[in-house]
Amino acid sequence: MMIDLSRDINLLTKFSIFSKFPLDHLEHLLNCCGAYYKSYEKNEIIYFQGDDINFLCIIISGSISIEKIDIFGNNTYMLDFYSGNFFGEQMILDTPSISPYTYKCSTKCKILCLPFHKKYSTNNCKNTCDCRLLFRENLLNQIAENNLLFINKLEVLSKKNIREKIMTFLINESEKCNSNKVQIPFSKSKFADYLGVNRSALMRVLSNMKNDGLIELNNKTFTILK
């Protein structure tokens, strides 16, 4: 699906990966790298773990579930990416262009695909042009933010019991939004998968935490009380 720059350019500049881009630079970058849209249905796979990566994916709408299969064949849910997030950066950096995870659509998704022909180089544009240098700087900043999401997940999983896992997750989220009110972006079942626990056990612990005056809970909104 072709990009209508006159319609979409203002939307794209709201994404962190395109922040500080003059409109003419962004238009040049998208045209040069051969950008296009792809639409996916819920549960459709964009990349399987181990697939060759042939385009950088920027999520325009919808959400992407990231999963990892271990050496024993167990499929583990890692986290979700949402509008403005990206994946597939291995094809641009100096690393093997192999997908480390399976990326599956949690909902219907619209993806901006940036193929960057010939490994971040095309015949139309040199690697040293201003738009590419700015994009690479933004990309590295966003990779650091993506890595923080995985670090937070590891911190949660390192806790000894479900209550500690929940509180660690909620505190991390509250620090991001600078509020004691936290809205989780997924269902209770997916929250249980994120924590690596059984859903019924999660609901039991949440009820106990509410009774103990640690949290208030209204659907997907948590309020940390202590």
Automatic annotation (TrEMBL):
It comes from Terrisporobacter mayombei. Keywords: DNA-binding, Transcription, Transcription regulation. Signal peptide: none annotated. SUPFAM superfamilies: cAMP-binding domain-like, Winged helix' DNA-binding domain. InterPro entries: cNMP-bd_dom (IPR000595), cNMP-bd_dom_sf (IPR018490), HTH_CRP (IPR012318), RmlC-like_jellyroll (IPR014710), WH_DNA-bd_sf (IPR036390). PROSITE patterns: CNMP_BINDING_3 (PS50042), HTH_CRP_2 (PS51063). Residues 17-114 form the Cyclic nucleotide-binding domain. Residues 160-226 form the HTH crp-type domain. This is Crp/Fnr family transcriptional regulator.
